[in-house]
Design goal:
D-Maltodextrin-Binding Protein, domain 2, binds adenosine-5'-triphosphate, 16 strands, 26% helix, alpha+beta, binds zinc ion, Alpha-Beta Plaits, 5-stranded mixed sheet, 3 domains
Length: 296
């Protein structure tokens, strides 16, 4: 692959569980994806960025080698790849909040499980041999890892293994195969990753702009703008209750001496419970509004 030196390259899953959410995130950050005939790459029309459409398993290698400066991949795939001995380093820029799943140990319903020691001497089928080995080592357990590249959930029925270690989100697939999760090896979600290689000054500048746009979208997902009125004596208590807010803006209310409007960006979820507490502390006319864009 020869790559244009004036453009950034983001490795994304071509088609699969991460593709749609990755595209939605990029669109939300204002990147217009040109849907062309090329099935290996897609150009961003309004930013010097190309999406390289690949299998998720290849993303850590592309990013580690610097073939792509950035990538979007599950923590499960990244950590499995980075446990390989000669793996060059990759940096995690930000967790993206989608593609949530967990790498779990599961067993047939009838199997007794009493913590990791129940795995001693067992055969465990998985597509994640290094993560599983790390889990076993951490718990001081010796077991046989049976490496499979797919259909891991069939292993117990085929009597290839007594346990499996596989990705689970809802658990429906396990249940359909008469299995139940008994332990967790890794909690995972999609990550934005970047190469550990040094970028040219031009690319570093582009990278900074790209990341701040993506981080802006991530920050607004949970963030809300809160406005409320409060008497002077309650201001301190109320300011301390606002979830994830830095210094709020406090403005005097016209014609109501001793009363103030409080405005703040809350960077954490605002629940009804929080509103109740604010009200209890003396706040009134509480408004919570979504934030469309934010650049810190
Ligand atoms: P590829 O063809 O790109 O190799 P794949 O079949 O390996 O695709 P997918 O099943 O599309 O991969 O899953 C991609 C990623 O989505 C997983 O590595 C994981 O991080 C995440 N994911 C989220 N929920 C699940 C789930 N229930 N099962 C499997 N992966 C999940
Ligand atoms: Zn894959």
């Amino acid at each position: 692959m020869t790559l244009d030196n004036a453009r950034l390259h983001l490795a994304v899953q071509k088609s699969g569980r991460l593709s749609q959410d990755t595209r939605d995130l990029l669109r939300g950050a204002g990147f217009r994806i040109q849907e062309g005939k090329n099935s290996l790459a897609a150009r961003i029309e309004n930013f010097p960025l190309d999406l390289m459409l690949v299998r998720d398993d290849d993303i850590p290698t592309f990013v580690a080698d610097g073939v792509c400066e950035f990538g979007v991949v599950g923590r499960n795939v990244l950590e499995e790849a980075s446990l390989e001995e000669s793996a060059p380093p990759v940096e995690v820029v930000a967790p993206l909040g989608f593609g949530r799943c967990a790498l779990r140990i599961a067993a047939p319903e009838s199997t007794l499980y009493d913590g990791p020691r129940s795995l001693g001497g067992a055969r465990i089928a998985t597509s994640y041999p290094r993560l599983l080995q790390r889990f076993l080592d951490t718990n001081g357990i010796e077991a046989t890892i049976v490496k499979m590249s797919g259909a891991v959930e069939l292993a117990p029925r085929l009597q290839i293994a007594g346990f499996i270690c596989d990705l689970v989100s809802t658990g429906a697939t396990l249940e359909a195969n008469g299995l139940r999760p008994v332990d967790t090896v890794l909690e995972s979600e999609a990550l934005l990753i970047r190469t550990g290689k040094t970028l040219s000054p031009e690319k570093a500048e582009l990278a900074g702009r790209m990341m701040s746009r993506i981080e802006g979208v991530l920050a607004t997902q949970e963030s809300k703008y809160i406005m409320l009125n409060a008497p002077e004596e309650a201001l301190e208590t109320i300011a301390a209750m606002l979830p994830g807010a830095e210094a709020p803006t406090i403005l005097p209310l016209a014609g109501r001496p001793g009363h103030y409007a409080v405005h703040a960006v809350c960077k954490e979820s605002v629940f009804w419970e929080t509103l109740q507490k604010l009200k209890g502390a003396g706040a009134s006319a509480i408004l919570v509004v979504p934030i469309e864009k934010m650049m810190m």
